[in-house]
Structures are given as structure tokens and as C-alpha cells.
Specification:
50% of the residues lie in helices and 24% in strands. Strands 6, 9, 10 and 11 form a four-stranded antiparallel beta sheet that branches. The termini are far apart.
Length: 337
């Protein structure tokens, strides 16, 4: 039974006093208030004194704008008023120049103002390229790039990269970039941009510089095609001339070799004949010293035989009927010739 019911029952019996219920009082002692405040502060400190740095990230610690240090990946303790700024140092970011991705893997938006570049021979090319980069020093990156432009374009870094790329294009010739110089341009541009970033200490490293497209302006495309056609015709003519020259040279070398072989054979024959003649004369000389008359007789017969052997004998009988007998054998020393 409630106390109010009890007093109301007494009133019904003739009593005068009536019990009225009152809401309970919320009076707390100072000790309870202090304890509650301590619990709240402890809970706030517990939830704001620990932080986690994800895998592949790096954290910087600040207290009222003053730099305290950095932290690697993992769970760490801090004071509640310490601010933690985290950076992903493994993520590969990219700048797109001249041709920007509107939606991944589908559409691209071309910006001809960014594509136009002047070469060393004062000609214009349209070049689209990409710079891949990542954060290498979070502290340097934070103090130089903490204010980003709209859409996270990183105006400072992209501006420096674009300026250095244009300088590299301006150091190379028009024809070189269009044909065989794309790799050289990419490598040299990466080196130039890296040196600039290192000198300025902005905490960014260039991973790669990729050239996606190089072309001539539409206004000169027709003229460029004509020039390329003429160059191809020139190259074809040069190749044909070189082929003819090589063929002619080889033929001349062959003929020269044949002539040299013939002359060598002629030389050998002449030397052999001279050697035989010399040997014969030496033999005759020895024989002449022994029997001069016999040698003179033999030489006379040899000469007569040689001369008469070349004669055509004709017999004339005093009439007009001359008989040509041709070569008549001559008998010398009993030998028929």
C-alpha cells in the first residue's frame, strides 16, 4: 500500500491530514559531480589518445600548429590535443596534360592549349603526356602542398612538371620528336623534373613520364603528309641506287678478279717460257763450247725449217694455169715437215 492511500484511508475515517505525492529530488553531492566529470574526461581522453597509421602510410603530429614528429604504420598513443595528419606514401598519383580522363577507361577530353608545344627549330607539336608521382617526404610535401587547387589538381607540382616538360621539348628538334625521339624525351623530362623537385624540396618523387600521343596541328597535317610522302620516295630511290651500286661494284670486283687471275696465269706462262728458253740457251752454250760447228748447223736447219714451214708453194709452168699446191712438206735432215 502506498503512503498516500494510507492517509486517504485515515481521512475517510475522520482524519484531517492528506498525503500528497511529490516527485523525487535530484540533489547530488559535489563528490558525485566531480566523479562524473572525471569519468567523462577519462572517456574523452581514452577515445582521443590512440590512433592508427594504415599500411603504406605515414603520419605527422602537430600540437597547436607546432610540428612534433612523425609516426610509421601501426597503433600509437598521443595526447588528446595532438593533431594527426596521415599520408599514403605508396599510392601512385598522376597528372594528365593535353588529354584528361573524363571517366576511367572510356572517354578523354583533349585540351589543345596544353598540347601545343614549341620545339628547338620553332615548330609546333601537339603532345599529350602523363606524369606519375608519389609522396616521398610527407613533411616537405605537407609544408609546400597542403593547399590544393580545385579537383585536387595539385597546382604547384603540376605547374613545375609542365614547365620542365616544355623546356625539354624546346631542346629537341621537331623531326626527332615525331620519329625516334619519344623515349629520349620521356627519359630526359623525367630527369629534369626530378632535379627540380629535389632542388625545391617539395617531398615528391617522379615515378615515370609517359608520352601518350605526338601529332602535328590539323592546319599543317596535309603539308606534313606531303613531306612524309616525298621522304619515303627519296628513301626508296636511295635504297634502289644503293642496291644498283652494290650490284655494279660486285660485278666490277668479279671482273677485276678474273683479270687478275688471267694476268697471273699469263705471268706464270711467260716466266715458264722464259725459263725454258734460258735453260735451252744455256744448254746450247755448253754444247757450242764443245762442238761449235754442230750447234751452228742445227740452228741453221731449225731456222730454215721454221721459215719454209710457213710458205705457200706455187708452181708456175709458163701458162696461165698455175697450180697451188698449198703447204709442201719440207725435208730437212731426213725429217719430213
Amino acid at each position: 500500500m502506498k503512503i498516500s492511500d494510507f492517509f486517504n484511508m485515515n481521512k475517510a475515517r475522520g482524519g484531517e491530514e492528506v498525503w500528497e505525492e511529490r516527485p523525487p529530488s535530484l540533489n547530488f553531492s559535489p563528490k558525485i559531480l566531480i566523479a562524473l566529470a572525471a569519468i567523462v574526461v577519462a572517456a574523452f581522453a581514452a577515445t582521443h589518445s590512440f590512433y592508427t597509421v594504415p599500411l603504406g602510410s605515414h603520419a605527422l603530429l602537430f600540437s597547436f600548429g607546432r610540428y612534433l614528429g612523425d609516426a610509421e604504420q601501426g597503433l600509437h598513443f598521443k595526447t588528446p590535443w595532438t593533431e594527426v595528419v596521415k599520408f599514403d606514401v605508396q599510392e601512385i598519383r598522376r597528372f594528365e596534360f593535353g588529354e584528361k580522363t573524363e571517366s576511367p577507361g572510356s572517354r578523354y577530353i583533349q585540351d589543345e592549349s596544353e598540347q601545343k608545344m614549341v620545339t628547338a627549330d620553332s615548330k609546333i607539336l601537339l603532345i599529350s603526356w602523363v606524369a606519375q608521382w608519389r609522396i616521398s617526404d610527407p613533411y616537405q610535401y605537407f609544408i609546400t602542398n597542403n593547399v590544393e587547387s580545385e579537383n585536387n589538381n595539385y597546382r604547384l607540382i603540376s605547374g613545375l612538371a609542365e614547365a620542365d616538360f616544355r623546356k625539354e621539348v624546346a631542346s629537341m628538334k621537331y623531326e626527332e620528336i615525331l620519329t625516334t625521339g619519344k623515349v629520349t624525351l620521356s627519359v630526359n623530362a623525367k630527369t629534369r623534373i626530378t632535379n627540380t623537385f629535389n632542388q625545391l624540396k617539395i617531398g615528391v618523387s617522379i615515378v615515370d613520364v609517359l608520352i601518350s600521343e605526338v601529332k602535328v596541328p590539323p592546319s599543317v597535317q596535309a603539308s606534313y603528309n606531303d613531306v612524309e610522302t616525298a621522304k619515303q620516295a627519296k628513301t626508296s630511290a636511295i635504297n634502289e641506287a644503293e642496291a644498283y651500286a652494290n650490284k655494279t661494284i660486285e660485278e666490277a670486283k668479279g671482273k677485276a678478279q678474273v683479270a687478275m687471275n688471267d694476268s697471273e696465269a699469263y705471268k706464270v706462262n711467260k716466266v715458264a717460257d722464259a725459263t725454258a728458253t734460258s735453260t735451252r740457251l744455256m744448254s746450247l752454250n755448253e754444247m757450242y763450247m764443245t762442238n761449235p760447228e754442230l750447234v751452228r748447223t742445227n740452228l741453221w736447219y731449225e731456222n730454215v725449217e721454221e721459215i719454209l714451214g710457213r710458205l705457200n708453194i706455187v708452181f708456175v709452168d709458163g701458162s696461165n694455169n698455175n697450180v697451188f699446191l698449198g703447204e709442201v712438206p719440207i725435208v730437212v735432215n731426213g725429217n719430213e715437215n
